[in-house]
Design a protein that fits this description.
Number of strands: 2
Structural class: alpha+beta
Helix content: 55-70%
Shape: elongated
Radius of gyration: 15 Å
Number of helices: 2
């Protein structure tokens, strides 16, 4: 996979694109989990949300770079 993507003469690092994709997936997944009431059973909801985003970003990064 290329390390940079070009869009109208501007080079973007691939990890930036992966970050945007992970944020979109996280936003949808967070809404589903909030409506399902999962956060009532989690000890620290903010920490769980950060860990969820880190896991998504890491999984997407490994999928594209491996």
């Amino acid at each position: 996979m290329p390390r940079e993507l070009e869009f109208q003469g501007i080079f973007f690092p691939t990890l930036l694109i992966i970050l945007i994709i992970a944020a979109a997936i996280y936003w949808l997944l967070d809404g589903v989990l909030a409506r399902a009431g999962l956060y009532r059973h989690v000890w620290h909801a903010s920490l769980f949300r950060v860990c969820l985003f880190v896991c998504l970003f890491s999984a997407l990064g490994l999928m594209f770079y491996d």
